[in-house]
Design a protein that fits this description.
alpha/beta, 5-stranded parallel β-sheet, disordered N terminus
Amino acid sequence: MYYFQAANVKKIKQYTFIIVIAFFTAVFLYVESLNNFSVFSTMTGPKAVYKGERDLALTFNIGWGDVRAKPILETLKKEKVRAATFFVSGSWAERHPELVAQIVKQGYEIGILGYGYKDYTSMEEQEIARDISKAQDVFRKLNVKNIELLRSPTGHFDKNLLKVADRYGYSVVHWSLDSKDWTNPGVQEIVTNIEDVEDGDIILLHASDSAKQTARALPQIIDSVQSKNLKFVSVSEMIANSSTKTEEIK
């Protein structure tokens, strides 16, 4: 009788331990998911856009390299994609004015990806402003007008960037679907990473040289989007045509 009770108590302790561990694991994973959710707004001020209500925006980051951007532009033209948004760093634009001109000629939107590849969360407001101003000067010289969008070069940002962007009149743009093309996981994996695409999504892709498989994955990505009857729009069009969703900075 006593052995039976002792065994039950032991089992109860084991089950309790497992439940407690499971609970804290779930809490940890939830907190981690929030930490990785890099989309913010201030309480009453500027916001960072990461998703709209309808249509779909293809976005490409270009920060460095010489050979990946042109094939992507050619693929978009061949596939008759008439709307996309390129976030371009000022330093890359300085070195590749002909490709910047091609982006504009094909009717695609340009947003600023800073000047150099810097982590804005490690910088003071004045430093961020200087980097953005330097990029602005480059695009003015290249006669690229009416830029309204800004993306953090590393994808990380905080209240400081939101305030600086608002001061310059830019909307900060994040993304809702990451293709992870920069990791070069294989063409099929890149396509799989965006297979759950839906209305309002902003897809992150890269046209820098580190993303070696993006141009080959692009036709399948386009087919996947079109098979769901989603319309390609620029990020500015998406913002104009829908309410945007944001996550508040605590």
